[in-house]
Amino acid sequence: xxxxxxxxxxxxxxxxxxxxxxxxxxxxxxxxxxxxxxxxxxxxxxxxxxxxxxxxxxxxxxxxxxxxxxxxxxxxxxxxxxxxxxxxxxxxxxxxxxxxxxxxxxxxxxxxxxxxxxxxxxx
Length: 123
Ligand SMILES: [Zn+2]
Description:
Elements: H1 16-20, H2 29-42, H3 45-50, H4 62-71, E1 73-82, E2 86-94, E3 100-112, E4 115-122
Helix pairs in contact: 2-4
The structure holds zinc ion.
């Protein structure tokens, strides 16, 4: 039993894994954001593509997402601010040159047919 990668203090099985394995859909933008961080940490590339809004998928290549996911060691997620449709966060990771990095992003999400999708982000 391991704590969830997203830092929620819940177990992985009771948290993001419910969304990653398709048992449930993330109920809020924040939950989707957290599960997408977990997907990066676990290399769940299909989930990352499926939760990206279809209008934006052409900008995200599967091979590039996989490379970005795998070449970094994901340490933790820090949520800085949340609104209904936005999440601002820092993702802490160690890059392929073993340098500590922080990915800061203000992400926008959209609810469509009852499901949340990642739209885009400014970093
Ligand atoms: Zn989680």
